[in-house]
Amino acid sequence: MLSALIQKLDLFGPLSDEARNRLRKLPARLLSVAPHDDIVREKEPRGDVRVICEGIAARTKSLDGGDRQAVLGFVLPGEVDESDPLADALDHGIVALSPVKVALLARQPFDQLLLEFPDLARAFRRMARLNEGITRMWLANMGQRAADRQTAHLLCEMQVRLCAVGMGGADWFTNPLTQEQFANVLGISAVHMNRVMQHLRELGLIRIENHVLRFPSLARIHEYAGFDPAYLMTDARVRAHEQAAE
Amino acid sequence: MLSALIQKLDLFGPLSDEARNRLRKLPARLLSVAPHDDIVREKEPRGDVRVICEGIAARTKSLDGGDRQAVLGFVLPGEVDESDPLADALDHGIVALSPVKVALLARQPFDQLLLEFPDLARAFRRMARLNEGITRMWLANMGQRAADRQTAHLLCEMQVRLCAVGMGGADWFTNPLTQEQFANVLGISAVHMNRVMQHLRELGLIRIENHVLRFPSLARIHEYAGFDPAYLMTDARVRAHEQAAE
DNA sequence: CGTCATATTGACTTTAGTCAATAGAAGTGG
DNA sequence: CCACTTCTATTGACTAAAGTCAATATGACG
User: Is A166 part of any domain?
Assistant: First the structure.
C-alpha cells in the first residue's frame, strides 16, 4: 500500500530495512477519492497523515471567499499531504484531480517513527525541500510569462515528475488532467487554455493521442519553455540512489 | 549588529540567553550593498550565512536566460539568505532593493551553533516555515487575480511585515520600493503598475505622502484585497512572545 | 542649474477573458 | 448494441485587461 511512498523516500536518502518495515506496518486505512473531491479541507484540524498512493491531487488555496481556487502544486503518488510532516497544520487544502487512492496513517505512531528513525525524518525533510523548490519555480514561471510558455513549462515538469512515478517515459506521459484543470492550475480561462494547447500542437511542440501527451522533440519544448529540469533534482536523486545500491 | 535577527528569532521560540550571546559573538563581517546589486548570485556556491540587518532585499530567479527576473519574495531585516539555513544550496539569487546592510556569518561556526542549540535551530526552521507560507500565498495571490487586487494584497502584506521591523505602524509603512520594483515583483509592466496605483488612490484605498504609504481604512483595503493576515502568523508570534515574557 | 531617476500620460497593439453555441467522447441504462 | 446524458474540447464574436512605445512631467540631488 505504501510502496509508492517508500520508493520515493528511498530516492531522498536510502532507508534502512527496519525503517522501511516499520513504515509499512503503521496502522493505516485506504481511501478512494473521486476527482474534484477534497482529500484535506483547508483549515481542517490536523488529523491523520495522508499519503497519495495512486492518482494525482493538487494543493489549493481558496481566494475571495471561495470564488476562485488557486492551485499551489501537485501531489503525486508517494507524496504526503504536508510538505513538512512535522508542521503544525496545513494552510491549504488538497483536492483530487483524478481518481485517487489515499492511505491514512495514524498521526501519533507516525510521529513516533520519525523520532526513532532520523534518516526517515531526513528523507521527509528533503522531499519537503524539493517541493519548496518546485513552488518557487511555479511562482517564477507563472505571473511572469505568456500563457503558452507557462503551459509548456508545466508540461515539461509534468513529464519529468510523472515519469518518475511510472506514468510516463522519456518524451511522453499519460495526461491525467482536463484542459479545464490545466486552466485552473495556470490561472487562465479554459477557452484560452484550449487555444494555447492548439498553438503548442501547431508549433509541433506537443502531440496528443488518447490521453498520451508526447513531445516530438524534448530539446525544442525545453528551449521554448525555458525549462531546466535541475530544480526537480532528478539527477541528484538518481545519484543518491546509485550510491545506495553500491 | 545582529539585533534584528535575534529579535525576530525570539518571536519564533524564545532563545536562551546563552544562545543569544553565542549568536552575537559569531565571527561576522558587515557589508553595505547598494540597490540593484546582488547579495547572493544565483547558483553561487554556498558561502557565509547572510543576515539582512537593514533595508530590504528580494529573492529572485532569472528566467529565459536573464531577460526577466522573477521576484520570489522579500528578505527583510532579521531574515537570512536561505529559508532553511541547513539546506545545501540556494536555487535563487538575492538582490538588494534598497540600500542594505548585510552581516556575513562564517558558515562553520554557525552550523555548529545550530547543533549545540536545538532551540535556535527550531526557531530558524519556524522562520523558514513562515516564509514558505508566504511564498504559497504569493503564488495564490499572483496569477489568479487582477493586478489591482494583487497590488492591494501585496501592500497589505508589506504593511504588516514592515511594521514588524519598525518601518511602519498600524495603518502605514515607509515604502522602500519604486513603482518599477513593484511592477517587477508582480510581473506586470511599470506603466500598468502606475495606473494601478492611481486607481487605488482614486478608490481612496491608499494615500501617499513622501515615502509614507497610508491606508485610510484598514478594513476597506483588506476587504478589497481579500487579505487575511493569519498567514503571516503575527498573532501566533505575538502570543509566543507574551508567553516567553511571563 | 542641470542631470538622472522616477512617475505620469496618451495612443495603439496584443493577450486574455467572457458568452454562447457546437462538436466529440465517454459513460450509462436498457 | 443503441439511445441518451454528461463531460470535454473547440469555435466565433466581442470585451476587457495589460503591454508597448514614446513623450512629458516631477523630484531628488550634486
Answer: yes
